[in-house]
Every structure is written in C-alpha cells, then in structure tokens.
C-alpha cells in the first residue's frame, strides 16, 4: 500500500477526456516522477489530489484516508503541500512574510486568532524560516517584495514555502521551469538533500529529463490522460512506448 | 514599548499628542483675526474628528488589510447609535453602558451581515454589504419604528424608565462628569476650548489606534494581507480564509459601532440617516483619501474630510463677497458664481473633485503625498533605504 493511492480516476472537461482510468501508487519516502507530453493530463492529475478538481469517478487515498470532498486547506493540513506550474506566492508580501504564512498554518491549523501578539516575537518560526531561506540560497532576499523577483526566484520561494511545512507528500509541478541552469542544479541538490534527511515523499512533474533522472526512484509516463508505463528510471529511457508518446505518433 | 517597535511607538505618541493638543492646534488663529474662520477647535467638530477617525481606523482593518470593500459600514454605526440611546432611555445617561452595548450590538449585526456577504468576493461582496445597509436603513423607517422611532429619530423622553438615573445628570455623562462640560482658556487674543466629551473621544481614539497597530503587526494581520495578496495560495497552504475574513469584518463592525455609540454619547439622538449609503461611502472616501492600508492614513483622511466639510459648507455668499470685494465688480460676480458652486450646500462637489485629484495623482492617498514631499525636500531616507520602505509600505 503506497502513501498515495489513485484508483480508476476519470476526469472530463466537456468533450475532452483529460484523465481516463488513471491508477497510480506512490510509495512512501520515494520520489515518483510523472512525465508526458504537453496536455497529457499531468497537472489535471495533481489538481485531483489537492482538492482543486474533483474526479468524475475513482478514488484518491492519502495516508489511508480519502481526500475527495475535502477542501484544499484540509488536504494541506493532512500533510500535502503543492508547488504550482505558474508560481503562486503572496506577491504583496516580503519573502520573509511569505515564509511565515505556511509556518503559521502548520503550527496553528486552518484558523486561529492571534490578533494582538507581534509577529516579530515568533522567534522559533522566524528562525525556521531563515534556515529554510538559507537552504534555498535566498536569505539575502528576505526583505524583498516578492512580486518584484524573477520567475525562477518565485519558484524557489514557493518551493521553500512548501518545504518549510515539512509535508509528508510534496507535489511539484515543473519546479525548475524558467530557472537558470545553476539554479536548476541547486534545486536538484536541495531535493536530494531533503530526500536523504527527511521522511518525505515527492511526486514531481517535470519536462527536464536531467532533473527527472537525477531524482526519480520510479517514473510514470502519462499520455492523453492514461498511464502508459510505470517503471524504474533505467527501464524507462529506451522504452518504445515512451518514445512513441513523445514523438506524438499516437494522435 | 507596549509591545510595539520603536517606529510604531513613535507613531502612537504622535497621534496621542495630536489628539491631546488638538484644542490648541486647531485654534491656532487668534479669535478676532480674519483667519479665525479656518479655526476648527470647537467641541462639535473636534468630536467628529475623533469619532470618524475611529470609524475609519476600523474600516481600514477590513479594507486596507484584506482589500474587501464594504459599502455598508454605516449600518453598524447607526446600529451602535440606536443601542446607545436605548441604554440612555432604559438605564441612565451614563455613557459607559451605552458605549459597551453599542459595540456588542454592532458585533452581532456584523456577524450576520458578514457571514452572508462573505460568501462572495470582489464587487459582489460590496453590493451585498450595500444591500444590507440599505435594507437596515429602510427597516429603520418602516417595520422597526418601535425600536427606532422612525423619522423623528430615537431620543430620550422624560417619561422613559431610566431606572438607574436617580438624581444623576439629565445629559450624557461619565460617572457624573458631563460630556458637554468644558473649560475655556483665553490667552491674549487666543481662545481655546477643552471639552470633556472631546477628551473622552480622544482617549478612545488613541486606544483604538493602539489596538489597530497591534492587529496590523500580528500573525492575524499578516494573514489578512496574505488574503488580499493571494487567497488561492493561502488555501493550498492550509489556512481557511473565511473565518479570518469574518473576524476582520466583525472587528471593523465593532469599531463602527463604537463610533456610533460615541456619536450618541455626544448628542443623545439617533436617526436612520446615519445608516444611509452616503454615510457608508464617506468612510470609504476617508480611508482612501488618507491612504488605505496605512496605519495613520484613515485618521488623516477622516480629519481632512470633516475639516473641509466644516470650512466649505460654512462659506456662504455674503462671506464670499467680503473676500472677493477687491476684484472689479464684473469679475467678482463671475468668481463668486463659480466658487459658490463648490461651497455651502455645494461642498460635496468640492469633495468629489478633491477625491478625484487624489485618486489620479496620489493613489496611495495623503500619506503617499506626504512621503513624496519629504523625499522632494530631501528629508526622506537615502536611496536604498527608500526602496526598502516602499516595499514594506502596505504594512505601515
Ligand atoms: N479547467 C480546465 N477546463 C477545460 N480543459 C482543461 C482544464 N484544465 C486542463 N484542461 C485540458 O486538459 C488537458 C490536460 O491538461 P493538463 O494541464 O493536465 O496537461 P499537462 O500534462 O499538465 O500539460 P503541460 O505539460 O502543458 O503542463 C489539456 O488538453 C487541457 O487543455
Ligand atoms: Mg501542466
């Protein structure tokens, strides 16, 4: 039994079958990559895991509990954090303030009224946030207005916001898209380090094969809403079905 | 100090000092000078400065932090006034129970109105709040006349129970200290008035301001700003925006109720016109004019509008003739014709024009104007610091 079990999930958008009979089992403490051509349904699948979309049929179990019908904030509180394909951060806030929100959510739950205490007095949270910012090489930007940063920096910030929550399952939707090569390599190193030192399961969508093969323990190839193969990275590389999917002959 | 950092503490001190010395600052022109027309240091006006300052501070906690624009906050102010007058009618003229009840009743009202209105966001939220306020206004004139006394307005009659009155004063008072009592001080050509009622409002204003600073700097305040910034991110980060929004709504409703209670404490009357949509619009304008999302902006905005309202609505044609008599006759008539459209009854035209100018040239409100001025005359901080402060601006 994996920490994440997706069974027979179908999702239609009008006439378009975005996901058909998707089955996926992600084992605890592994990195599971989901690859596939554009429009394969990868993001749609992630959306079904975090409460953004509800599958038409099928079930999604996380940690032995169903996530279907739960609100996004409840699913996050269960231990799933997600990085989006287009960075979602708090643009009006500074980098440090961005980091405080996930920490408050983790400590205080979905709602708790702290209206009089000063945020500057949350020494523990500030320290944790600073450490995380050091890990992603962003500590020098701590007081920067986050909307004014580059796309790559926004991505790194969003990832840091997810990682600082210490989630059981981290979902990454193309975390290195738009990043400079050096930052991509830093991200790979960071994720390797996180994987080695924490109890964390990672599901990653990625087009950059260097990232995929550096990190993944298992790979699922999705094409036109259906998983074609699921296997170890070394078996995926030369797989004929994969080549076919990427060359697009199946259309 | 008081749990504030140095900058916030000095801001609090500035506000407290301004509030405390307002009777002197506002009567800076000698009594018999021509400029005494511009003095604002009389009780009625000063009380309005403080009361609408409180109203705007509370409104800013909702609008400034979360970006949710309520067009119905005057309803809570009106409800607060009614609650206070009822306390006068039933208990006594002591303002303490009156003010406390006005806050409680406004809180209950805002829970209900907030709960329903917050099911929507953006323009739909604004329209829902507007509709609720308009409904309250209409109800006050119709079904609820037993509670509101309809068009006459709610007031205290000699045959009201006033069970705790005994031989206490027959005007609003604070444990015997009458609100309308005042001390006059004549220094040479200057004349200053120190009214009890104003000082009660001023003390409450400073406390309200202090609480608002604490809220701005708290985890709750940060969460509200996160809601304004990106609700989607907030949800996927594990927080539920709804109860946070409702809390902010109720807190700002309580500030409005407090302001309404104080209005009644200064003058024991309550009428439905306080709930009209124009009154709701006024607090929006005050907040934006001063600088929404800044700490001190709403107080400035409230003061500016109440002051200008007073000055401009006082300018009648006789006065204008006196002022412009140095012009040749044909010009005088023309000038007065134009100016009179913006003064007296027409002062709202002036307000509209002012509001437009600020929105177009100073979208950050008077606070932004002040900052630009400081920078222009070189009193601003150095370049790099300056960009830093611009970034943290939404929190100030
Ligand atoms: N909310 C939606 N409404 C309608 N159609 C949608 C919606 N979301 C996705 N789709 C469609 O579903 C299909 C799968 O989209 P999805 O975003 O999951 O692809 P993807 O594998 O993430 O692609 P990419 O690599 O480009 O991100 C696409 O054809 C897309 O146009
Ligand atoms: Mg995608």
What features would you describe in this structure?
The complex is a heterodimer of chains A (251) and B (396). Chain A is an alpha/beta fold. Chain A has 2 domains: 155 residues, Rossmann fold (3-Layer(aba) Sandwich); 61 residues, no CATH class. Helix content of chain A is 37%, strand content 24%. Chain A contains 9 helices and 10 strands. In chain A, strands 6-7-8-3-9-10 form a 6-stranded mixed sheet, with helices on both faces. In chain A, strands 2-1-4-5 form a 4-stranded antiparallel sheet, with helices on one face. Chain A is globular and about 55 Å long. Chain B is globular. Chain B has a two-stranded antiparallel sheet. Chain B has a two-stranded antiparallel ribbon with strand order 2-3. By secondary structure, chain B is mainly alpha-helical. In chain B, helix 1 runs antiparallel to helix 7, helix 2 crosses helix 8 and helix 2 crosses helix 11. Chain B has a domain of 275 residues. Chain B is built from 17 helices and 6 strands. Magnesium ion binds next to helix 1 of chain A.
Topology, element by element:
The complex is a heterodimer of chains A (251) and B (396).
Chain A: E1 4-13, E2 16-26, E3 31-35, H1 42-49, E4 57-62, E5 65-66, H2 72-78, E6 80-83, H3 95-108, H4 123-135, H5 151-163, E7 169-173, H6 181-197, E8 201-205, H7 209-215, E9 218-223, E10 226-231, H8 233-237, H9 240-247
Parallel strand pairs in A: 3-8, 3-9, 6-7, 7-8
Antiparallel strand pairs in A: 1-2, 1-4, 4-5, 9-10
Helix pairs in contact in A: 3-4, 3-5
Chain B: H1 6-25, H2 43-66, H3 74-90, H4 95-117, H5 122-141, H6 145-148, E1 154-155, E2 173-174, E3 177-178, E4 182-187, E5 190-195, H7 196-216, H8 219-229, H9 231-236, H10 241-266, E6 269-270, H11 277-290, H12 297-314, H13 317-323, H14 329-342, H15 347-361, H16 365-376, H17 383-391
Antiparallel strand pairs in B: 1-6, 2-3, 4-5
Helix pairs in contact in B: 1-7, 2-7, 2-8, 2-10, 2-11, 2-12, 3-4, 3-10, 4-5, 4-10, 7-10, 8-10, 11-12, 12-15
The complex binds adenosine-5'-triphosphate and magnesium ion (MG).
Residues 42-43, 85, 173 of chain A line the site of magnesium ion.
């Amino acid at each position: 039994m994996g920490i994440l079990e997706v069974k027979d999930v179908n999702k239609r958008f009008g006439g378009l079958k975005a996901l058909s009979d998707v089955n996926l089992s992600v084992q605890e403490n592994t990195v599971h990559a989901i690859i596939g051509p554009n429009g394969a349904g990868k993001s749609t699948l992630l959306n079904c895991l975090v409460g953004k979309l509800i599958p038409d049929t099928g079930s999604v179990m996380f940690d032995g509990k169903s996530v279907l019908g739960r609100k996004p904030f409840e699913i996050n509180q269960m231990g799933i954090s997600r990085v989006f394909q287009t960075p979602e951060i708090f643009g009006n806030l500074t980098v440090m303030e961005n980091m405080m929100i996930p920490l408050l959510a983790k400590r205080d739950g979905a709602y708790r009224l702290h209206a009089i205490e000063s945020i500057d007095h949350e020494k523990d949270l500030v320290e944790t946030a600073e450490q995380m910012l050091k890990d992603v090489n962003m500590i020098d930007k701590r007081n920067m207005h986050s909307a004014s940063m580059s796309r790559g920096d926004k991505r790194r910030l969003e990832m840091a916001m997810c990682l600082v929550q210490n989630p059981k399952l981290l979902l990454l939707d193309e975390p290195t898209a738009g990043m400079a090569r050096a930052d991509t390599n830093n991200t790979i190193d960071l994720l390797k380090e996180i994987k080695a030192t924490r109890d964390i399961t990672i599901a990653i969508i990625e087009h950059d094969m260097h990232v995929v093969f550096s990190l993944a323990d298992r790979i699922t190839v999705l094409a036109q809403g259906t998983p074609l193969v699921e296997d170890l990275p070394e078996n995926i590389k030369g797989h004929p079905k994969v080549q076919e999917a990427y060359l697009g002959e199946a259309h | 100090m008081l749990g504030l950092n140095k900058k916030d503490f000095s801001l609090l001190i500035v506000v407290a000092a301004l509030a405390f010395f307002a009777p002197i600052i506002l009567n800076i022109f000698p009594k018999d000078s021509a400029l005494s027309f511009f003095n604002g240091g009389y009780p009625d006006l000063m009380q309005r400065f403080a009361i609408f300052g409180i109203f705007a501070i509370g409104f800013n906690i909702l609008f400034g932090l979360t970006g949710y624009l309520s067009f119905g906050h005057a309803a809570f102010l009106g409800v607060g006034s009614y609650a206070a007058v009822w306390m006068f009618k039933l208990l006594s003229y002591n303002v303490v129970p009156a003010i406390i009840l006005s806050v409680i009743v406004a809180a209950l009202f805002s829970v209900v109105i907030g709960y329903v209105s917050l099911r929507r966001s953006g323009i739909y939220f604004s329209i829902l709040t507007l509709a609720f306020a308009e409904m309250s206004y209409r109800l006050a004139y119709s079904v609820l006349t037993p509670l509101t006394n309809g068009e006459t307005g709610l007031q205290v009659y000699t045959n009201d129970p006033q069970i705790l009155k005994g031989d206490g004063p027959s005007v609003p008072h604070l444990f015997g200290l009458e609100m309308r009592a005042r001390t006059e001080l004549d220094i040479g050509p200057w004349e200053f008035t120190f009214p009890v009622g104003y000082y009660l409002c001023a003390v409450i204003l400073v406390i309200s301001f202090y609480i608002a600073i604490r809220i701005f700097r708290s985890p709750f305040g940060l969460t509200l700003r996160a809601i304004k910034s990106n609700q989607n991110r907030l949800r996927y980060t594990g927080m539920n925006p709804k109860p946070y929004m409702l809390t902010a709504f109720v807190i700002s409703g309580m500030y409005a109720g407090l302001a309404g209670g104080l209005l009644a404490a200064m003058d024991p009357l309550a009428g439905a016109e306080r709930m009209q949509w124009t009154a709701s619009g006024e607090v929006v304008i005050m907040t934006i004019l001063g600088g929404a999302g800044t700490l001190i902006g709403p107080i400035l905005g409230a003061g500016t509008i109440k002051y200008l309202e007073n000055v401009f609505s006082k300018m009648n044609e006789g006065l204008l003739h006196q002022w412009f008599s140095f012009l040749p006759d044909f010009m005088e008539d023309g000038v007065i014709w134009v100016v009179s459209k913006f003064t007296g009854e027409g002062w709202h035209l002036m307000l509209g024009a002012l509001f437009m100018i600020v929105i177009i040239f100073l979208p950050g409100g008077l606070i932004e104007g002040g900052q630009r001025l400081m920078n222009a005359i070189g009193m601003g901080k150095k370049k790099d610091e300056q960009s830093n402060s611009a970034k943290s601006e939404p929190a100030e």
